[in-house]
Amino acid sequence: MPLSDRTPVTTRRSRRRTTLAPGRRSPGRAVAAGLGALVLLVATAPLLPGGSAPDATITPQAGAGLRTSSTAGPGVVTPEMQAEIDRVVREGLSARVSARTSTRALAESAARCATFDGQRYCLGTGWTTSSEREVAARMARSTPSGRERTGDLDPAAALRQQARRTPTARAAAERAELTAAAKSVAKVWLLRHEVQGVPLPADFAERHPEAMLSTQARDTTTTTSTSTPVAPAAASPKTAADYPETFTILKQKQVRPQQRYYWCGPATAQMIGWGWNGSRRGQAYWADELGTTTAGTAITDMVRTVNETTGWGGADYAGEYIVLDIGDFSFKQWYLLMMKHVHDYRAPVVLHPILLKQYFPYLDDDASGHFQVGRGFDQNPGGRPKLGYFEPWDQSKFDPSEPRIARTQWQNAYKSFRANKAHFQHNVGV
User: Fold this and answer.
1) Please, are residues 343 and 243 in contact by the beta-carbon 8 Å criterion?
2) Cys-Cys with 264: which of 151, 182, 212, 299 at CB 3.0–4.6 Å?
């Protein structure tokens, strides 16, 4: 899908704004970004507690080099991965739970995790470094009363929604979620490597050919292909200094506030879908795609729907979206992830904050967990970095006495980071 007049991109360096000419992100640019962003390192320390480090060294395949995670397509579910999926699903089938079961017991039953190639994926939470016990404890927390609801599933609602399913339906949903996760593990490794500096496993290239690219380079001024050798170690991953001062994607006119108090998910999906193909589907359509109820929408359904209904998860953009726990990210790492996603991938982020007045100055009241569309950054030299996003929540729509909230927002990025971390799941869709 090309970048068209529906998906404008603006960038600014040294306070000068220019508009990039519309056009498809070329594979050559993605290749160059990937080769410039990666360092092949021996995995001297495992990412997950209790793991073991491989003792081999990385041996790149002849004629191949690492891609960026934006083009790490779905991988193959290995027999080991399948066994892990079967184990987690089987444990769920053996549990005896219902919607009347206590929240704590539901949390302990639902917080089941699989480990794929050294990365941990927990059902409903995403890719995380937290243990099952830590995930269960977060899910068992009670939600403060008196807060406005905007449409994100709170822990108790999410747990009881799952418990109301038949065992067969629940197992099928879990199997689908885990299978999609297993196929995306290469992207997780690459993101953690590029953003957090986590060393790649020694056998990464061998185990994940979906994260490899041919080193054949084409001279764009001719029609002749030439083979270009790629060094085993490329330049260091990008830092904030490698990005323009300001950068945005998506068209400001392609926005709408959420039409119901529990539709932040459908409104966010509407704006993401609208930005992709220039066609505005009603929020009721997106609510149906997401499986939204009056209790709200799950972030796993947000990610699934972006992948199924838009091309933002294509190889020339972000690659298939994943749910990534940022609980162990520093602010610099989180902001680098935002810049990477918007600038390198040219794709929106599914932001997942909690709406509290201490983080968002336009709020009149504290509210629930929430979804927003991340679509820009302003490093603001000499000041505080800002994050650009589309805000679906407009409190005045549901209480005319409260101030109106604008759709297009530029707010303190550190406060957005804190709002993301304050959410009980502290994750994003990337």
Assistant:
1) yes
2) 151
Domains of the chain plus CATH, in order, are 23-75+186-238 (no CATH), 79-183 (no CATH), 246-429 (3.90.70.10)
Query: What band does 9 get if pLDDT is binned at 50, 70 and 90?
Result: low
Q: How far apart are CA 254 and CA 234, in angstroms?
A: 39
Q: Which amino acid is at 421?
A: K
Q: Do the Cβ atoms of 343 and 244 come closer than 8 Å? A: yes
Phi, psi of 117 (to 5 degrees): 50, 45
CA 186, CA 207: separation in Å to the nearest integer?
9
Among 392, 393, 384, CA closest to 417: 384
Return the pLDDT at 209: 87
Stretch 139-154: mean pLDDT? 86
Q: What is the pLDDT of residues 101-115, one digit of tens each?
A: 888 888 888 899 999
Residues recorded for the chain: 430
Greatest CA separation for the chain: 68
Q: Is 409 helix (H, G, I), strand (E, B) or coil?
A: strand
Residue 374 · residue 387 · CB < 8 Å = yes
Question: Hey, what are 190's tokens?
Answer: 């690459």
Residue 165's SS3 state is coil
Angle formed by the axes of helices 132-140 and 103-110, to 10°? 150
